[in-house]
Amino acid sequence: MMDENTLRQWFIDCFGPVQGEMAWRQLESLPDQIREQLMSQSPEDLPDPAQIRGMMQAFAGGGLNSFGEMQQTIAEGPINVKLARSIALQQANDAESERIVTAEEGSAMRRAMSEVNLWLDTTTDFDPAPDHAEALTRAAWVEGTIEQWAQFAAPVAASMNDALGAVISERLGDAFDGEITGMFAGPVPIPIPEGMKDPRQLMKLFANTSYAMQLGQAAGAMSKEVRGSYDQGIELLRNPAGGLIMQNVDEYARALEIDAAEVTAFIALREQAYARLYATVPWLMPRFAALIGKYARGITIDLDAMEEQLRGASSLDPESLSGAVNLSNVGLTTTDEQKETMHSIETLLALVEGWVDCVVWRSGMAHLPHLEQLREMMRRERAVGGPAELTFENLLGLQLRPKRTREAAQLWERITAGQGVEARDAMWGHPDLLPSLPDEADRTGAAEPKGERIDWDAELSRLLDDDANDDGTNDGANGTNGPDDGTRSN
């Protein structure tokens, strides 16, 4: 329980003497029941005033300053990308984050990139990606990737917005009649412009804003975890040569207690292997985009669960309302079609990451003393995912993590040993030429070696027009170059 003077001072610390007093007067005018609820909180539960100031700055940068800006935000799409970027940048530019890449860091990255490209010249037929890799700050990674993340998440956000509108108009009826004169983030009053006091209009804005806030928070958190622009296995930056977040690379090296130059070279080697693959194979990223879009558009929302979330948010508290647009709360269990699409994503991602792992091993084995340790650490990280990555998966509704990277790397290694580098890399010339991972029977030894052949042209057609096409078969075999990880996604 807090006294009035404590809360009044907190408002002043958040908003300054003038606006803080205005916020306090707004609080005094609230109904007794709401005031008592707010005053019953412990002072320790109040957010840091610096965080509140940052949130208000983020809203100002997110196009929420006026009724006109709010209307434009709703019209621009299901996600307020400006707000997502603003919130993410606040985290990426916090007190623990470097604002610039130092000359030493930039030199270390360029030296590593130059060195690993020489190694790759001997182990792959693919030429270096055009342009030069960038030494990035956490903020630069956010700026370079947030649009792509928003594009992936847009179908899910659109489904959320449509479902929210349906629940409010068709199910809740009179529960949302009347006008809303204000909202509160905890005890923080959020003024509502005249034109947005219709609950239905306000809910559209809220869904747009809430999803953007979650996306921004996830991107900001992930900016502290990623080390290279291809860490998720897909192309996110516009610069095809990619880049390294050098502060994160240095922190990773310290955590592993391995020489920073070796860790930088290892991560640069992975980054450039990805960059060469994506730069040489023009169909690869569009294929991922089609698969991810198909999966996201197929996600359906549980209207009963959303209605329950909204009914439990009678005070219009943004924290409780955010549950109505949280996929983990209101998303339906995936269908067989969703599982099939997810399997296609995981298969292609495993082939990409397996190829990279194979090339990295052949390129770095003579140069990196801790190569095996670093490879195994990377595999485990990709299999489990970090906290921010898991948050992203809740927003997107899917996992961008391969389930069978180890098997795919073994497969590419067998192909390299048996047919050579040129033949291996030529398989990326067309989707139909890609090798097949062993099917479930092969991995248990219960049948003759037999892999699954995916007709990628038919797969893309099915994704775009919902036509079903059967897969054929192709021979394959389990390898002996390392242990089988025993995982499989259906």
Automatic annotation (TrEMBL):
Q: Where is the composition biased (Basic and acidic residues)?
A: 440-465
Q: Hydrolase among the record's keywords? A: yes
Q: Residues annotated as region Disordered?
A: 429-490
InterPro entries named in the record: Zinicin_2, Zinicin_2_N
Gene3D superfamilies (alphabetical): Zincin-like metallopeptidase, N-terminal domain (1.20.150.30)
Which molecular function term from Gene Ontology is one that the record holds?
hydrolase activity
Q: Which key words tag this protein in UniProt?
A: Hydrolase
- Name it: Hydrolase
Locations of Low complexity compositional bias? 474-484
Is Hydrolase set as a keyword in this record? Answer: yes
Any Pfam family hit? Zincin_2
Mind telling me which residue stretches traverse the membrane in this protein?
none
Q: Which SUPFAM superfamilies match?
A: Metalloproteases ('zincins'), catalytic domain
